[in-house]
Amino acid sequence: MAVRRRQQRATAGLTLDELQAEAREASEFLKAMGHEGRLLMLYYLCERDHSVAELERLIMSRQAAVSQQLARLRHEKLVTTRREGNQIFYSLADERVREAVQMVQRLFRATAP
Question: Could you tell me which residue ranges the HTH arsR-type domain spans (predicted)?
Answer without folding.
Answer: 16-112
